[in-house]
């Protein structure tokens, strides 16, 4: 059983897997997720962007976009993105998860791994094409707004920032709502925030943000 959802990009569908209605992309499995033929479940509890889609946020994704993904880790989410997107650049700072990321890249000719620090975009500016349609950011570091601002250089003027703010990475002692307010304020000079939504249903103390460059 399949279901179409106008809020989902082409290449992402809701399908019944193991008796549950699940978000799915078409591609080889990477982390033991349930499958249905060529389709594999996109587990929102392991993916901030998956959580944003499950919550119905207006990500602006339609399928086929050029994507810069910051904080790719072992490739769980970015592999799903590459299933439906165009060229997808996956930036990850830590060498250990990059080993798994390389495995996810192998069957996906459009997924390009970069062992780089998202806080230093100048180190991969020679690789990532300008005018990307989407900047997806999920980095566990202080200064998450600064990372988004510094990487704006790669984003098309009509592109989208899809940001998952992790409150505990900014300040473990501060109230998450206060952290979120500070991050949004720091984004204001560079981005217009279109939508925000707490991701607590799937990820505690996280805020999903959709924004576009000013």
Automatic annotation (TrEMBL):
The answer to whether the entry has keyword Methyltransferase is yes
Query: What ranges does the record give for the region Disordered, renumbered to this chain?
Result: 1-36
- Keyword tRNA processing applies: yes
Q: Which SUPFAM superfamilies match?
A: S-adenosyl-L-methionine-dependent methyltransferases
Q: Name one Pfam family in it.
A: Fibrillarin
**What class does this enzyme belong to in the EC scheme?**
transferase
Which superkingdom? Answer: Archaea
InterPro entries for this protein: Fibrillarin (IPR000692), Fibrillarin_CS (IPR020813), SAM-dependent_MTases_sf (IPR029063)
**Catalytic activity, EC:** 2.1.1.-
Cited function: Involved in pre-rRNA and tRNA processing. Utilizes the methyl donor S-adenosyl-L-methionine to catalyze the site-specific 2'-hydroxyl methylation of ribose moieties in rRNA and tRNA. Site specificity is provided by a guide RNA that base pairs with the substrate. Methylation occurs at a characteristic distance from the sequence involved in base pairing with the guide RNA.
| Protein family per UniProt | Belongs to the methyltransferase superfamily. Fibrillarin family.
What name does UniProt use for this protein? Fibrillarin-like rRNA/tRNA 2'-O-methyltransferase
Q: What is the native source organism of this protein?
A: Halobaculum saliterrae
